[in-house]
Structure formats: C-alpha cells, structure tokens
Design brief:
Layout (H helix, E strand, L loop, with lengths): L2 H23 L8 H17 L23 E3 L8 E3 L2 H15 L6 E7 L2 E8 L2 E7 L5 E3 L2 H5 L15 E9 L2 H13 L8 H9 L4 H6 L3 E7 L10 H10 L9 E3 L2 H14 L7 E8 L2 H7 L9 E5 L4 E13 L4 E13 L2 E7 L3 H7 L2 E2 L2 E7 L3 E7 L9 E2 L14 E2 L6 E2 L6 H12 L11 H9 L14 H5 L6 H13 L5 H7 L7 H11 L2 H6 L2 H5 L6 H11 L2 H12 L21 E5 L7 H10 L3 E2 L9 E4 L5 H9 L2 E3 L1 H7 L4
Helix pairs in contact: 1-2, 12-13, 16-17
The structure holds 2-(butylsulfanyl)adenosine.
The site of 2-(butylsulfanyl)adenosine has 14 residues, from β3, β8 and β11.
Length: 668
C-alpha cells in the first residue's frame, strides 16, 4: 500500500471501530458481531505495528498497554464531586418536591428520574474532544488518576463524535453487569479467592488496579449522567443533557423519564421497584433531579450534596423463610459446604430455594438451625444469603445442625488444613468429587463434551463406569444405552462427541484436569508457553515461576499435581486413548486471521489468479462468496471491477484494493 493509502486505511478502520462501539454501547443496536469487530481491531493493530507513525492517541488499539505502575497519582477535582442525600419513602420524596417548589416559588417544576446504578463514580476529562484524564471520586475533593485503566473500557469513547474545543468534564458511573459479576465470582471461587460481595466492590477493585491489563479483563461498563458547567454547551435541561451525551458518543443508561409532578416521580419509583431486577446491572435506587439546569444554580448545594437532587433508595429486599434442611455439599476439591434448603421465596427477581452457609465457622456463628425462621437477602442483589435466624421465633423443636466430621458421601474422615477455613474430604476417589471433576472435565471451557450433562455424569460415577477421566474414552454406545433416558441414537451421538473431544487443544485439556488454581486463563498461558504436556510435567518450580502470570501458589500446585501417581496415571491413560497432548506446530493466532470472514472477489488481480486468491483466503479461515450483501466483510477489487464494486459502495461494505488485500493476507 502506498503511504497515503495506509494512512487512509488506518483512519477508516479507526472511524469504523469508533462507529461500531457507538452503535453497540450508546445506541444499543450493533450492526456487526464481536468477531468482526475484533478482526478490524487486529487489522488496525497490525497496520500500526508495521507503521508506528499511523498510531494516534485515540486509536482503539491504545486501550491497553504499558507496564503496571507503582502507585496512583492524586488529582484534585476542579469542582467537588458531591454525593446525594438519600430518601427512603414516599413521604420523604414529597418533602423534597415541596421544598424545591417552595424555594423556586413555582409549582410547575419538572423532574427527571434516572436509575441509580450501583457502581463507582468517575470524572472524565476531554480536551478538544479527546479523552485525556480519568479520575475516581475519592473523598469528593481529591480522587485518584486512573486514565489508563479507564481507557480499557470499550464503552468509553477515546474521542467524541461531536467536534468540541476546550475542556469538557463528564461524570458517570463505572459498573459491572450482573452476568459479568457472576462469572467473575465463579472464576474467583474456582481459584479459591474470596468472591466480591457486590458488583460495586468488584468494579471499584478493577478500576483501582495498578496494572491496567487486569482492569481490561473485568469487562467494566460506563454510564454517564453529568456534565460540569453544562451551560457552556448551551444546554438548558438535564433531559436534554443526557441526549447530548449520547450524541457525543458517551453511553448513558437510557432509562430516564421526565416527571411533571410528585405522583409521576412516585410512579417511576414504583415501576422501577420490580423492573430493576430485569435490568442487566444492579440499581439500588432512583435519582431524582430538577430538570431545568438554571434552577440548579438557584437551589445551590450544601457542603456535601446538591439541593436539586436526591437519591431514593430501595430497601434491600429481605424476606422470611424457613429452613427445611441443612445439608453438606462436596465440591470438586473436596471442600464441605453447608447449604440451607429453604421454603421457596421470591426475592429480588427470582425464586430462592437454597442459600450457602459457606463453611463450618459461618454456620456456627449464625447459629442457623433446621426449622428456624430466617431472614433471607441477596448480597449485591444477586447471591442469596441468610442474614440471621430469628431465635425469638423458635418453638423448641428446631434442631441444631451438627457439622459432620466425615464426608457425607464417601465417609472419609474430614480434615481441616491449618490456615484454611474449608473442611475437606481428603479422598480423591470420593464419588462426589469425582462427579464434580468429570462434570468440569466435560464442561465448555474443558473438553467441551456436548451432551455429557450432570445427570449422565452422576449415573456413570454411581454405576462405577467412570472412575477416572480416561474411562470416558472407553465407553461404548451399548454401555451408555443401559443408562436412564439414553437411547441408541443419543448414545451413539455422545460417544461421537467424546471422540471429537480428543482433539481439543492443550489449554482445554489443562483446564479440564481441574488442577487447583488453574482456571481457563492460566491454562492458556501454560499451554502457550510449554506447548506440550511432557514439557509442562518436566518443568521445575523455577521454570514455572519464569512464566509471566504464574505465581508461587500456582507453581506449587502444578508441581504437586505432577508428582501425584494417580494424576500421572490418568494422563498416561488419556494419552493412550488418543487425547491430544500438545499444540500443533503451526498453532498461532495469525494463521487463521480471516476466520469467519466473507469475501467477494471482483476484477483482475496482478498477484494472484482468482483461484489462488480464494485458496489463500480459505487457508486463513475466510470464505469466498459470489455476491455482495450486507453480510459481506470485504470486497476485493482488482483491475476493472464490475458491478459488485458499486454494490459494495452502496451497502457500505469495505472495499480492498490489491495492496490492502495483500496486506491482509500478510503478503505485503
Ligand atoms: S448524579 C452532583 N445520577 O450515586 C450529583 N448519580 O449517592 C452527581 N449515581 O456519587 C450525582 N447513578 O456515584 C447521579 N443517575 C445518577 C447516578 C448517580 C448512580 C451515584 C453517583 C453518586 C452517588 C450518590
């Protein structure tokens, strides 16, 4: 590509990526899938790597990078970041509305209601439309500078869509969706790390990381709701301001509504009370603001909070239930967890039937007894927990639960390792551990054996058909037909799926083995570094510690795993069964850089015949199709292109000239 064209291509990619981020995060109406977005991002990164002069500060490739830092720098907010006064009931809402009317000497005051997201308040500074500084709220006067961390948020535009000169300070909330929060906690529990109590703590922890690479992994979201000195932007109302933010490319929640009187405000609060559990993020209340911005100045602020806004807080939903039973569940690593089975109650958007009591100490501290009336709540509106037992309601027939000193499943004597809270079953062949282990082995992140669900795993272990993962690879359709609900067809299918899983890559296998502290990410790191089971097995603790991302805890766990005869036997048997134990030689990301992309060829290329071009595209994972549609990723135009080129232009499909095409193939 000629220098001018390279520059043009980089600019086009940047613009397009920005546009797609806007459609995704602000309009909530994406027009391409994640793979396509990632492919464009990769193309831009490749271009910039080859020609660093093409890199710009607002390039989406600049979101992550650079070394972790030593400490945060403090920043003073030019205008303090205030907090809001809380109100808790209708009466207090009415009182607020009346006070505002009285002070403004008007009855026709319009309010805006917005959900209050439970996240971390941040200040975002744009200079001439480019994001230059991000800071946390801190104590309201002084916060911490977290620019690089915030740049990793894909929903944060690195440059605005509307041309703006001078400084713009926007404020908003960084948060995590319920789903990402649940996945994060699951992964943490897998690594035996303390789960976060709520999405706000998780988001705050992620933003306040010295290494932005960790922030990037947490999938944080942004919603903005405030502009400092909005009058300079010609804005007169908060409701207008929210639209202005969206037009500038800044995400907002988009759930705001204007309310003409107090009844409308209360109506919004009532509507949100139930609906908030269906939103993808946790909201703990409603923020009520005076809509007309000039009124903000008239009403003023106290030292702590504005007088033109309050936050209505929903009480954490708590309900009573009865403990029907307490049982102990045995986890994959043998940990014994007491769980209360409850009289079902509807709570914060779902039916709760059980609540974990975490461990023996917690059970004893809360003194929860079978038959007790308990108060149940969802921590962070997500995880059900027992707040307390109502001991005053006991009738005398409630039974204290005696924590077993033996594993309830295999009967082995339970042990408590000094320094750990968990009490464990030490028997590695314990059917409960084996079931969980096999289920994990077959899970999506593991060997991804489709159709091998919990019910089948349970039967396989109970009928002694599987004692070790390798036994799975010797199952026959006839044997499977003996299981409940397994007919001839499903048995054949399952054996087929088990067979296919032999080819899963090494990272999947390492994850599947369930080595302590080795989650999907660590498994991928290890596979990428050692590339084969033998090399990993032979690695000393020092060798392991040399790998970036592997700390002492993981290294010790890996060594212990590979020194255990039973594990070595499982690995040997898996290998004998034909399970792949190493990464193929040519395994590399760029080798299938066109995975899933659709190409249309038109005109004559100098460098390749049409057939050669097609073969090259297919070798890299792409496909060549006959006609252009909105689903086409690229039209490759050689000399004398035909009508396909015009069609591409009409539909806004990217057109590559020969140089750009060669670059994409890695041949230029
Ligand atoms: S307005 C000067 N709007 O709640 C007032 N705050 O308890 C600026 N919050 O510190 C705040 N959603 O972190 C506002 N729609 C919303 C909000 C919101 C969440 C947070 C924010 C603030 C805290 C006050």
């Amino acid at each position: 590509m000629a220098p001018r064209e390279k520059e043009r291509r980089a600019r086009a990619l940047r613009e397009e990526l920005k546009e797609h981020a806007y459609r995704y995060y602000v309009l909530d109406a994406p027009t391409i899938d994640d793979d396509r977005y990632d492919a464009m991002l990769r193309e831009l990164a490749d271009l910039e790597a080859a020609y660093p002069e093409l890199r710009t500060a607002d390039s989406p490739t600049q979101r992550v990078g650079g070394a972790p830092r030593e400490a945060f720098v403090k920043v003073r907010h030019a205008i303090p970041m205030l907090s809001l006064d809380n109100v808790f009931n209708d009466g207090e809402v009415r009182h607020f509305v009346e006070r505002v009317r009285r002070e403004l000497h008007r009855d026709d005051v319009v309010f805006v209601c917005e959900p209050k997201i439970d996240g971390l308040a941040v200040s975002l500074l744009y200079e001439d439309g480019v994001f230059v500084r991000g800071a946390t709220r801190g104590d309201g006067t002084t916060g911490e500078e977290v620019t690089r961390n915030l740049k990793t948020l894909r929903s944060l535009p690195l440059s605005l869509r509307t041309p703006l000169s001078g400084t713009l300070e926007v404020r908003g909330e960084v948060f995590m969706t319920r789903r990402d929060f649940a996945a994060l906690n699951e992964a943490r529990e897998e690594r035996e790390e303390q789960p976060f109590a709520n999405p706000r703590n998780a988001a705050a922890g992620a933003v306040r990381q010295l290494d932005p690479a960790i922030t990037a992994q947490r999938r944080l979201q942004l919603a903005t709701y405030h502009v400092v000195h909005p009058e300079y932007r010609g804005l007169a109302r908060q409701s207008e301001l929210l639209q202005w933010l969206r037009d500038a490319g800044l995400p907002t929640q988009g759930e705001e509504r204007c309310a003409d009187d107090v009844e409308a405000v209360l109506g919004y609060i009532e509507e949100m009370r139930g609906r908030r559990f269906t939103l993808p993020y946790v909201t703990d209340g409603v923020v009520i603001k005076v809509d007309a911005l000039p009124d903000w100045g008239r009403l003023g602020t106290t030292a702590k909070s504005p007088r033109w806004s309050v936050a209505f807080k929903y009480p954490p939903e708590e309900k009573r239930s009865t403990v029907r039973e307490i049982f102990v569940s045995v986890g994959r690593t043998g940990s014994l967890t007491p769980v209360a089975r409850l009289e079902p109650v509807h709570l914060a958007g779902s039916t709760v039937r059980r609540a974990s009591l975490h461990n023996r100490d917690e059970l004893e501290r809360k003194d929860v007894r079978i038959g007790d009336t308990v108060v149940v709540r969802k921590a962070g509106d997500i995880i059900p927990e027992i707040v307390c037992s109502l001991s005053e309601e006991r009738k005398g027939d409630e039974e204290p639960f005696v924590f077993p000193d033996h594993c309830p499943v295999c009967g082995a004597e339970a042990v408590r390792i000094p320094g750990e809270v968990a009490v464990r079953c030490p028997n590695r062949s314990c059917p409960a551990q084996l079931k969980e282990g096999v289920f994990h082995f077959a899970s999506r992140g593991g060997m991804n054996i489709i159709g091998l669900g919990e019910k089948i795993v349970n039967q396989l272990v109970e009928k002694d058909m599987v004692r070790d993962f390798a036994d799975l690879y010797h199952l026959t359709p006839e044997e499977l037909q003996g299981l409940e609900r397994m007919g001839a067809v499903s048995s054949e299918k399952l054996v087929g799926q088990i067979e296919v899983s032999k080819e899963r890559s090494l990272d999947h296998l390492l994850y599947a083995l369930g080595i302590r502290y080795v989650g999907a990410k660590i498994a991928a790191t290890l596979a990428g570094h050692f590339r084969g089971m033998e090399a990993l097995r032979g690695a000393s603790e020092e060798d392991l510690l040399d790998v970036e991302g592997i700390g002492p805890r993981i290294a010790v766990s890996l060594r212990a795993f590979f020194e255990d005869g039973q594990n070595l036997q499982t690995i040997r048997r898996l290998k004998e069964a034909g399970v792949a134990m190493s990464l193929p030689e040519e395994h590399g990301a760029e080798e299938r850089s066109l995975e899933g992309m659709r190409f249309v060829l038109t005109g004559e290329l100098q460098s390749h015949t049409r057939r050669e071009a097609q073969e090259r595209i297919e070798a890299l994972g792409g496909r060549v199709i006959g006609s252009v549609s909105s689903r086409t990723d690229y039209v490759v135009a050689g000399e004398k292109p035909g009508s396909k080129m015009t069609k591409a232009q009409e539909l806004g499909v990217a057109v590559l000239d020969e140089q750009a095409f060669l670059h994409l193939l890695g041949e230029a």
